[in-house]
Amino acid sequence: MPEQQNDIQLRSEEVQEILSHVPHWLIRWGITVILMVILILIAASWFIKYPDTVAARVVFTTEVPPVHLMARTNGRITLMVSDKEQVNKDDLLAVIENPASTKDILQLSRSLDSIRSIIYKRPVELGKIQMDKSLSLGALQNIYLSFTSVIDDAKRFSSISFYKNQREALANRVQYYVELNRGLEDQMDLLAEEIELSQELYEGDSTLYSQRSGTKPEMYRAKANYLQSKRNKESLQSSIIQNNIQIAQLKAQIDELRLKEEQEADQLQAGIVAAYEKLESELIGWKQNYLLISPIDGKVSFSKFWSDNQFAQAGEEVMIVVPNSEDIIGTVAMPVQGSGKVEIGQKVNIQIDNYPSNEYGMVIGQVESISLVPRDNMYSIRISMQNGLVSTYKKELAFKQEMQGTAEIITEDKRLIERVFNQLRNIIDRVN
């Protein structure tokens, strides 16, 4: 009992008052409510997801991008089309001032296209190549005249038939020696009979002389006739051999002439091809410098030059050809920093500068492709627009080439509680 009294006396009156007082119900329920609110917030932070995004600028174009046509040289412009006019690929849109006749240049271009297959064919069908020498081609004039000169040389070579005539003359001489040998061979047949007969006469006279029935002069005459016949045979054989040598030499000359003709024809062919390719190359360069030609089907859009005789500087944009394609894509230039979170298939929210998002809403796209290698520390990302330019407010926005906006690529939907813990972990890691 004395020990318990001592313990009670150790407590102050204030402490005894608190311990002996029962908490008010408001306090008890307040603690319960606060605990429930905390639990609700924790539960909500688990269910609520907040997207992690990467922002970048986006430019809208069509599948086939618009083509900006620039002046390659200084000069006054002659427009061949009007603004907003529909054009086809390879249509002439404008001409920059130059000394040549545009009509003649286009005629030359068509002529070169028409004879292309003939030029590379062997042998060249020169009769099918007809070039107008009265064309006014300005800087191309001398090169064009060189080409027509090569064609004329080839035509003269073909018309003169120098090698052909020489071959025919030699072939006639070959035929002459062949006929001559045929006659000599006929003589050889007759001479063989003559030799046989003279041999028999000589042998007969020799027998008579040995039997003393014939005279010695008769025997000598028979022998002389026999020997003369043999000499005649040898002479004919020698003539035939000489004629055959002549035939072989003439045939060799014919082959040599044929080879020379082929070599000269090859040289002319090479000269024609070289002159053609040089003219074609210079024509392409000339057209690039002085003609603005549409590379695609589309619609012309003027920006600065609206009438003829306006002066254009080299490198200055003259007009734009907007393609007819309706497939819209977005192109994003993404900085290297943070780009590792971007993956194909991720959703993209886009706010277009032309259309305020609070009034028109956003358009939705998807990451379609990412360049493998950055250029100037920027990755090129292609955004596909499955719903076109229909906004989240169900408004269809009008497309204009190269209009821009801000793209937010949703890289990950994180829970709110994950973000809190990530921040806490980051702080702890920094402290440690």
UniProtKB/TrEMBL annotation:
Organism: Fulvivirga imtechensis AK7
This protein's record includes keyword Ribonucleoprotein: no
Compartments, as annotated in UniProt: Membrane
Coiled-coil regions, chain positions: 240-267
Name of the protein described by the UniProt record: Putative hemolysin secretion transport system membrane protein
Record's bilayer topology term: Single-pass membrane protein
Superkingdom in the source lineage: Bacteria
Keywords associated with the record: Coiled coil, Membrane, Transmembrane, Transmembrane helix
Membrane spanning residue stretches: 26-48
PANTHER family: MEMBRANE FUSION SUBUNIT OF EMRAB-TOLC MULTIDRUG EFFLUX PUMP (PTHR30386), TRANSPORT PROTEIN COMB (PTHR30386:SF26)
Top-level taxonomy: Bacteria, Pseudomonadati, Bacteroidota, Cytophagia, Cytophagales
Chief localization: membrane
GO cellular component: membrane
